[in-house]
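Sat 14:20. Reprocessing the chain from the morning session after the first attempt stalled halfway. Input below, unchanged.
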Amino acid sequence: MSTVLPVEGVILDRVLQTTPQLSAAALSGTAAVRFNSAVSQVPWAARHLRRRALMDGHDVLASAQQYNLTGIFDRQPVRVCGIGQVFTDPDHRDRDYARVLVERLLDEATADGVEIALLFGNAASPADGEGFNTLRFNDLELDVAQSPRHGSPMILVRGGEDRDLAAIVAMGRSRGAPFRFHIERDAELVKYAITKRRLRAGFGAAGERELRFVIAEEGITAAAYLVISTFNGTWTIEECGDRDETGARVGAILQALIAREPAERRPIIRGWLPPGFLPPQVTIVSSTPSDELMMTRFLTPGVRRRRFASADVLYWRSDLLC
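Finished this time. Tokens:
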């Protein structure tokens, strides 16, 4: 009889060294273990993140990360169970244990009164299946117009700090208000998302990846921000925000960052942008379906028929729980 248990100790080391997402992020088995240890000590993760496994005695059949989240759906707060990094153990690839584990976790969540489940994966995910509505996003390649001054625009850009988190939360709530669904991001969750990507860059090969968290401020208050991962000449927008609905400050931040490196080849800039958000300095060069997916399922009878589409969701790459 298989059981679902917390993943700890030696079992945790085995799971981390056989998880494909971490390998894809250029983390070796040892680095993956150290990365997980560091992430688990971030305050938000300590309270909201658990790694679970489907076990048969001492044998790991499948594993997953489980997140306790709050969302806003049709302007009402809802409890959300997020599930990511779902994999059948390599020794049991001939069986669909990942699906079994997901269903067990969702049964627990339903019994606990959780209303919506989010399952994160990719186009080849073994965990997608019946009962889930798949939301697809587009990977955008972006072009940033040169500042009319042929240099850095007149905007004060500095590194982001903890004191900026409250303003970032406020920007996110304002941006999310028109959408039917978005994750309710408090300051601790925003900090977790940024810290996790900073740690992933730090545990990779020296100098290969970098995370930039920058702020445009007015007075002493953050008025816009941008979080970018850099790798091999490509910038990936993880998330951004702007008190200006047009996103003009975000565009100006991008211009300022490019102007700081005038001798370098202009970077390739990619990312997701929510519907209706495109800074005036930015144009879309290309759009291709993303391999990364978010799948949704309503767990409680009162909301099971209230489906939503990708255009109804505000979601940033840094919110991907995988």
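The chain has two domains: 3-136+292-319, 138-289.
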